[in-house]
Amino acid sequence: MIEAIRGQKTLSQLGSQFKVHPIQIAKWRKAALEQMPELFVDGRTRKSRDGEADSNALYEEIGRLKVELDWLKKKSGDARLEELRALVERGHPDLSVRRQCGLLGVNRAGLYYEPVGEVKRTAADAIAG
User: What is the pTM of this model?
Assistant: First the structure.
């Protein structure tokens, strides 16, 4: 391979010497020359050639967003605030309560608030306090 890179012999001569087709030697030479700069790059900053790790992360993100979008389409519509609060599923396996409230536009604190009914006050209560 070094002889092919140096160009000291022709591809035909190298093919005859090593009993390999000259086109194969040319492909190996081209690949070696293209990948040679990567050999001298710091390993900490080297990026993956095929980006497989990046694409896996993107596919994971796409799947999560699809689950959220499907959930939102199913749950929302022309609903009032009380109805939107009722749509939040506290035990949903993929969406947290926080994320559901964000998607629905509901204040999370309001989700946990339960109004207390009116208390009847008597005249004695008004005088006492």
Answer: 0.39
